[in-house]
Amino acid sequence: MSFHNPAIRRALEQMSDASGDSAVRLDANDTAWVEREVTQIRNKMFEIVYAELKAMSLVPLATDISADIIQYVYFVLDTVGEAKVIANGSDDLPRVDVSKTERSGIVRPLGASFGWDIFEMRLAARLGQPLNQQKADACRKAIARQIDKLLSSGVTDSQTGLGMEGLLNNADVVALGIVAGTLWVLGTTTAATQIALLNSTAQAIVTATNEAFIPDTAILPTATYGVMAATPYGVDSDKTALKWFLENSPYIKNVIPWYRGNGAGAASANRGLVYKRDPEVLEGVVPLLFEALPPQARGLEMIVPCVAKCGGVKIYHPEACRYIDFALS
């Protein structure tokens, strides 16, 4: 495999030329070695998957949003009208249509970078040691973490007011009403209470939509999930409330803990979600998951800029979702 990369080689040459000090310039062999190392690291960055970041596994990803746009429009849908018994030869057929409420969303770019100074690269070349892969890993993970945060709540760890909504704070779902849940305490809250809350929430979706949407997934805040996973179902049972629920629920097939629900609800309550995990219902907007741009010479450093784009979550059928806000005390 050839590792020749003109962009990396040019950046390395610019660094050496700009340093003004022959003692820090990379010679031809060093340049070739560092070029190979940087190329390998950039290639490896695209292979990394961070399993602990769950958002992209909890929502199907949209495939219709271009990475070039800054705003998109989608519709919250409902059907109106009904079919009726008609007379033979009738041409006055009842109309059935789709009611659409327009929503708009914004796609925001995310960026981070990593790099090495010429002294690090020269030393690594001289010793024949690989360049520090950890910097690249940290950059890739920093972007993935903020995509996860944007998909959960439409904000980053340090930025709000970005004009987007996430899986846990969609206004159309909130408008349907929030199911109230008390604080679950291990050893105090019974298995029956826990199971009843999830069953009633799922049934509310099925009933309200006349079985058009059957929820299949429940997300619980971290501590709430822990209580359900540890509460015995009955005195002599070897099953927990969670295991019994999954074996007997007519609808829910997956119960997933997610720390993003901690404090995500009204008045900072811990928020859970019962929903149908299907692209017909909702989609996450990540037009550009990750891109490492060609390295750039900047002073005595080689900088690798990295970018992504995210637009939060669009929910087409909020009636297929219900939030559960658990009391904090």
Key structural traits:
single chain; 329 residues; alpha+beta; five-stranded mixed β-sheet; 32% helix
What does this structure look like?
The chain is an alpha+beta fold. The chain folds into two domains: 6-60 and 110-162 and 285-313, no CATH class; 171-283 and 316-326, hypothetical protein PF0899 fold (2-Layer Sandwich), CATH 3.30.2320.10. It is 32% helix and 23% strand. It is built from nine helices and 13 strands. It has helices at 6-19, 28-45, 55-58, 118-127, 133-153, 171-174, 191-208, 222-230, 241-248; strands at 71-80, 97-106, 108-117, 179-181, 217-220, 254-257, 270-275, 282-284, 288-292, 296-298, 301-310, 313-315, 321-326. A five-stranded mixed sheet has the order 4-13-7-5-6. A hairpin with a 2-residue loop joins strand 10 and strand 11 (301-310).
Query: For the CA atoms, what is the radius of gyration?
Result: 26 Å
**Global shape:** globular
Question: What structural class is derived from the secondary structure elements?
Answer: alpha+beta
Total E-strand runs: 13
Query: Into which percentage range does the β-strand content fall?
Result: 15-25%
- The spatial strand order of the largest sheet comes to 4-13-7-5-6
Tally of contiguous helical segments: 9
SSE series: HHHEEEHHHEHEHHEEEEEEEE
Query: In the residues, how many domains can be counted?
Result: 2
Mean pLDDT: 85
Which ranges are low-confidence, i.e. pLDDT below 50, for 5 or more consecutive residues?
none
**Distance from first to last alpha carbon:** 60 Å
Describe the largest sheet. 5 strands, mixed
Helix content: 25-40%
